[in-house]
Design goal:
mainly alpha, Arc Repressor Mutant, subunit A, 3-stranded antiparallel β-sheet, 6 helices, 3 strands, disordered C terminus, WH-like_DNA-bd_sf, MarR/SlyA-like, MarR family transcriptional regulator
C-alpha cells in the first residue's frame, strides 16, 4: 500500500499501464520507423501475423485503431501488397483481412526485434515474474472484454 502522500497517478493502475506502454512502445517504435514501416502499419501487420483471417472490427480492436482509420490504412497497405481482403464464407456483410506472404516477410524481422526488445525490458524482473505479469494482463483484458468494456481509440492509448 502506498504512502498517503503518494500522487494518485503513481499508484493508479490505468495510469501505470499507460505510462509503461508509452515508454516501452516509444523505444521500439524507433526501430519500426527505421525499417520503413509506420507505427500504425506495424500494429496491423503484427496483429495479423500468424493469425489467419480476421474481421476488420476484430483487427481494429486488437491493433488499437479506430475502425475508419483502419479501413483507410488497409487500402494503403493492400496497395503495397502486405494484406488482402477476403469475403466471409457465409456472411457477405463481413469483410475479412489476412496478411500476405509479402506482409509476413516484411514483419518477420520486426517481430524478432520486438521479442528481443521485450526480453530486454522484462529481463530485470526475471522470467517467472514476467510471465506472471503477462498472464495477469491477458486475464484483465479478457475480463474487461467480457464485461463489455469499450476498447480505447488509438489516439487515447499507445499500444504494442
Amino acid at each position: 500500500m502506498p504512502a498517503q502522500d503518494t500522487p494518485f497517478v503513481a499508484d493508479y493502475l490505468a495510469a501505470l499501464l499507460a505510462q509503461a506502454s508509452q515508454l516501452i512502445s516509444a523505444e521500439f517504435h524507433q526501430v519500426v520507423r527505421a525499417h520503413g514501416v509506420s507505427v500504425p502499419e506495424w500494429r496491423v501487420l503484427a496483429s495479423l501475423a500468424g493469425s489467419g483471417e480476421m474481421s476488420i472490427g476484430g483487427l481494429a480492436q486488437l491493433s488499437v485503431t479506430k475502425q475508419p482509420t483502419l479501413t483507410r490504412m488497409l487500402d494503403r497497405i493492400a496497395a503495397k501488397g502486405y494484406v488482402e481482403r477476403v469475403s466471409h464464407d457465409t456472411d457477405r456483410r463481413v469483410t475479412l483481412v489476412r496478411i500476405t506472404e509479402k506482409g509476413e516477410r516484411t514483419v518477420a524481422d520486426l517481430i524478432r526485434l520486438a521479442k528481443e526488445h521485450e526480453q530486454r525490458v522484462l529481463e530485470p524482473f526475471g522470467l517467472a515474474r514476467a510471465e506472471a505479469l503477462k498472464s495477469t494482463l491477458r486475464g484483465m483484458i479478457a475480463l474487461r472484454r467480457e464485461a463489455g468494456a469499450a476498447p480505447a481509440a488509438a489516439d487515447e492509448q499507445e499500444a504494442c
